[in-house]
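Minimal example, chain plus pyridoxal-5'-phosphate.
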Amino acid sequence: MICETIQRLHTELPPTVKLVAVSKFHPFESIVEAYGAGQRIFAESRPQELMAKVRRLEEMRASRVAETRLAGGDVEDAEAWLSDVEWHFIGHLQTNKLKMVLPYVSLVQSVDSLRLLQAINAWGEHNAKVISVLLEPHVAAEETKQGFSPEEILAILADASSYEYICFKGIMGMATFTEDESVINSDFAALADIFARCRSSFPSLAPDLTELSIGMSDDYPLAISHGSTMVRIGSMIFGARQ
Ligand SMILES: *Cc1c(COP(=O)(O)O)cnc(C)c1O
């Protein structure tokens, strides 16, 4: 099932849309299965779980290399296996957990406060690593303290040069949790509008500001119609979360 869904999505999604497989709460074996079907980008939402899976992956890779060497097989091939997995972080990230996440991910999609952004920049400086991030605006109707207003996002980008260790790659958003498609539609329109304003207001950042991460299992076709460049799909690929 995992294989078929991955392959179907890879065929079905427009070439401008990247598939991020959300593997949170799913066993490591499911990730390996999806990898076998050609999936390369995976996303986790909890630091502990991300770290455990990264380690497990490295162990599996190392043991396959060792076995292949013993058997006199193609070691180069074994070394390549799982080495091109790319991890994204999509959950709420506490500033005291950065070291569990930032060494392993190519993108933090869920930067939802100024405090977190500043902490990531400081970590980057200390570790000489530029971290790619998406900023998360708050548009959904649910009450939450997390996420930026559109004005806050524009203010951050106006001040982008003071974040030397951050590469601003775009916007990540979620629609209101509802069955009402007109609400989801207007949330996606609002997110796409913020993304367009960021790009047009800061032409010098626009070459990097290329990602609009919207769309999950239940709403990704609608998100794509609003210009999504990255869909985050979990349960449709892996089944219900345990
Ligand atoms: C869990 C999660 C997803 C995936 O949701 P599905 O409905 O299982 O596709 C996408 N984005 C974020 C931020 C998530 O936390």
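The chain has a mean pLDDT of 96. DSSP finds ten helices and eight strands in the chain.
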